[in-house]
Amino acid sequence: MNKAFQGINRIKNVIFMGTPDFAIPILASLVPVLVITQPDKKRGRGQKLKFSPVKQYCLSHNLPVFQPQNINSEEAIKKIESYHPDLIIAAAYGKIVSQKILDIPRFGCINLHPSLLPKYRGPSPINWALFNGEKETGNTIFFMTKKMDAGDIIYQSKMKIMPEDNYGSLLKKLSEQGANDVLKVLFLIDRGIANPMPQDESSATFSKFINRDIRRIRWTKSAEDIANLIRGLSPYPGAFTYFQNKELKIIKAKPFININGKPGLVLKIVKNQGILVGTGCGAILVETVKPEGKKEMSAYAFSLGKPDISKEGQRFNDGE
Fold first, then answer.
1. Residue spans of beta strands (DSSP E) within the chain
2. Three-class SS of residue 29?
3. Rounded to whole angstroms, how far apart are CA atoms 86 and 40?
4. Residue 1 has what pLDDT?
5. 86 vs 83, 90, 203, 265, 277, CA distance in Å?
6. pTM for the predicted model, two decimal places
7. CA distance 123 to 231
8. Which of 73, 132, 290, 310 would give a disulfide with 249, using CB separation of 3.0 to 4.6 Å?
9. Sign of CA dihedral 165, 167, 169, 172
10. CA-CA distance, 262 to 108, in Å (whole number)?
């Protein structure tokens, strides 16, 4: 048994539900009798089946994995029941489960959500915290209910968002912290001293799914808003713009509120640093880019391959 589980007496059979990289540190801290993840999906140009990160982890660690097409089907429910779980732990599984499943474990179902609920319920809390320039975030573990991310809160941990943080770095920090958070909650539930508190519905906010339209840079927005959008989508899926009719992802940028220029206009090439671009209020220094069909590179290197980029009137645009 995992050393972290020493002292856990009543919770023996744990089922874990998760799909992306975020779930891996939490899964690695547990000893699940079953892992449930989403079905393999076709991806890329060749449309080859690709395993989820959680499935890849299970295969390399000899953990039993279950991938139902419909988690709420009678077949899936019977499978879960057959393991007689004491507790189901979810972290970014990606599907809503039915009341029938919630009623199976004797200690209930808990979920780890990377925000300070009731703020940023929904599928993209880390991205939206960065988009909105938040200075603090954290993890919330709560008892699952039929309503998404609305159950009673068992435990929260807080974390400062550093100026250099982006989506990738913050996701990593929160997932690693989440592993410790889950173990703390296991002890609370096992000892019968968890004291769940209802969420304040009047304070609830929601994070929308990240679609292509959200990722599009609107240069009429302020430098700070644009920089926050870029960091909230870096390193993937990436905020994008267009230059000379080709899509260009911007991976890293720095806002300058005391420099002004027309939105999207290339103001200056800063040697060894990047491309200074005007916005609706201020300017941003584009530092790292990913051109269409190419690898990530410094914006300055990109500018050297575009000798006309310094000509008067050259612009980045949103393609609309």
1. 14-18, 34-36, 41-43, 48-50, 65-66, 87-91, 109-113, 136-143, 153-160, 239-243, 246-256, 266-270, 274-278, 283-291, 297-298
2. coil
3. 27
4. 42
5. 9, 14, 32, 59, 56
6. 0.94
7. 18
8. 290
9. positive
10. 56
Residue ranges of domains in the chain, CATH in brackets: 3-203 (3.40.50.170), 212-310 (3.10.25.10)
Specify the range with the lowest mean pLDDT, choosing from 4-8, 40-44, 85-89, 249-253: 4-8
Cα 279 to Cα 87, 122, 243, 276, 284: the distances in Å are 51, 30, 15, 10, 7
What does pLDDT average to over the chain?
94
Instruction: State the Cα–Cα distance between residues 113 and 150, nearest whole angstrom.
Output: 11
Residue 19 tokens read as 């799909």
Name the residue with tokens 């929308």.
208
Instruction: Determine whether 111 is exposed, middle or buried from the number of CB atoms within 10 Å of its CB (0-12, 13-18, 19+).
Output: buried
Show the tokens assigned to 75: 């077949």
Q: What is the pLDDT of residue 308?
A: 87
DSSP 8-state symbol, 5: G
Give me the amino acid identity at 135.
Answer: K
pLDDT in tens, 177-198: 999 999 999 999 999 999 999 9
Q: Give the pLDDT confidence of 271-317 residue by residue, as tens digits.
A: 999 999 999 999 999 999 999 999 999 999 999 998 888 888 899 99
Per-residue confidence at 80, pLDDT binned at 50, 70, 90? very high
